[in-house]
Amino acid sequence: MTIKMIAVDMDGTFLNSKKEYDREKFDYLYQKMKQQNVRFVVASGNQYYQLKSFFPTIADELSFVSENGAYVISEGNEIFCGELQPDSVKDVLTILSEVEGAHTILCGKNSAYVSEQEPDEFVAYGSKYYHRLKRVPNLFDIKEDRLFKFALSFPSEKVKGVLKQLNEVLGDKVTPVSSGHEDVDLIIPGIHKAHGLMQLQQLWDIKNHEIAAFGDSGNDLEMLKHVGHGFAMSNAQPEIKVAANEIILSNDESGVLVKIEELLSK
């Protein structure tokens, strides 16, 4: 088995329930990856500026498939940036304004945005995942950014129903996917984590069967199906376990690091 790229989701996968990871173990494995010319890729629905904060000393060496593939950065250089059509943004915002209990973050290349009408608790919650988060008077008025994703929050018992409703109403304007923290992302159709990995594969001439990927949620589905070696956490959603080649230890048992060490030893 030759592995040339390792791609990891963050929430519920690489990070434990306390939003941490075994840094000493990872540093050791990262050096082994470099020695074996294995690329380490962070593939997450979260914002690039938040993701790089988890790797303060090596962020400029790493590659990030952030915002579910809408914004891909490698070694500090932009590789890909998606964009929602302005009419689609307007239509989605109009529909969301009629969904009871919905909280919305509109995500762009320069920042994420939240309405001034949103409660402070939601803004504080959003700040965990979006280190650049601006309060604005009206989401409809954002013009000076390249917008590529909606991040939505609902009461957990409503997520399944809301996903169904959004699929029915929004059609092909955006694709709803569940993210790692029981929320819903609306992404550009065809722009997902697997698409982000493809951009890096072209850059490095890496084949699908030379990639190992790790995930736990709906936004990891395309990625796990795309790669030759897909691993689902034992805490993963049922459809992710079905899509994976193997189910490994949970995120609270450092399942990703245990499996990476095994892969590198082979």
Automatic annotation (TrEMBL):
InterPro entries documented for this protein: Cof, HAD-like_sf, HAD-SF_hydro_IIB, HAD_sf
Keyword Hydrolase among UniProt keywords: yes
Keywords: Hydrolase
Gene3D superfamilies named in the record: 3.30.1240.10, HAD superfamily/HAD-like (3.40.50.1000)
Keyword RNA-binding recorded: no
Gene Ontology MF, one: phosphatase activity
Gene Ontology CC, one term: cytosol
Cross-referenced NCBIfam families: Cof-subfamily (TIGR00099), HAD-SF-IIB (TIGR01484)
PANTHER family per the UniProt record, alphabetical: 5-AMINO-6-(5-PHOSPHO-D-RIBITYLAMINO)URACIL PHOSPHATASE YBJI-RELATED (PTHR10000:SF53), PHOSPHOSERINE PHOSPHATASE (PTHR10000)
The name this protein goes by in its record: FMN hydrolase/5-amino-6-(5-phospho-D-ribitylamino)uracil phosphatase
